[in-house]
Amino acid sequence: MRNDLRKSDIHLDGIDKRLIELLYDNARTPVSELARSVSMTAPSVNERLKRLEESGVIAGYRVDIDPLALGYSLIAIVRMRQLPGKMHELEAQINLIPELVECDKVTGDDCYIARLYLKNISELDPILDSISDLADTNTSIVKSTPVKRRLLV
């Protein structure tokens, strides 16, 4: 990040927001197409993207994988409350579970809330067993996702 530009100084105008929306929908959109979409020249769009990257607003470009296409038909939300003195061990174990694709450390009754992708329900117990000596768990199976991860701008 440039030293003269702090995140608190960032102001996104309508063009910045539109560029971010377009890239959020397809991070591989060519700059020429982005430029046409916002009625600007490609060099101007390039400069805006560079500024958004340098300021940290655009933190990276990612591929969005469809878990169902890879055979992961179930999603489970696992809430974990670590057992006394087991925080570091639990966190290390969480990082070893490849099906656990997202995990937040939270306040409240639970310590972690994780999103787990499974090919079938029989995979759930062995994963939960791998952390049973480290945490109490509460698991819910996701029926649907009415709000997908959405853009903040």
UniProtKB/TrEMBL annotation:
Residues 12-73 form the HTH asnC-type domain. The keyword Cell inner membrane does not apply. Keywords: DNA-binding, Transcription, Transcription regulation. The keyword Repeat does not apply. This is Lrp/AsnC family transcriptional regulator. The lineage of its organism: Bacteria, Pseudomonadati, Pseudomonadota, Gammaproteobacteria, Oceanospirillales. PROSITE patterns: HTH_ASNC_2 (PS50956). Signal peptide: none annotated. InterPro entries: ArsR-like_HTH, AsnC-type_HTH_dom, Dimeric_a/b-barrel, Tscrpt_reg_AsnC-like, Tscrpt_reg_AsnC/Lrp_C, WH-like_DNA-bd_sf, WH_DNA-bd_sf.
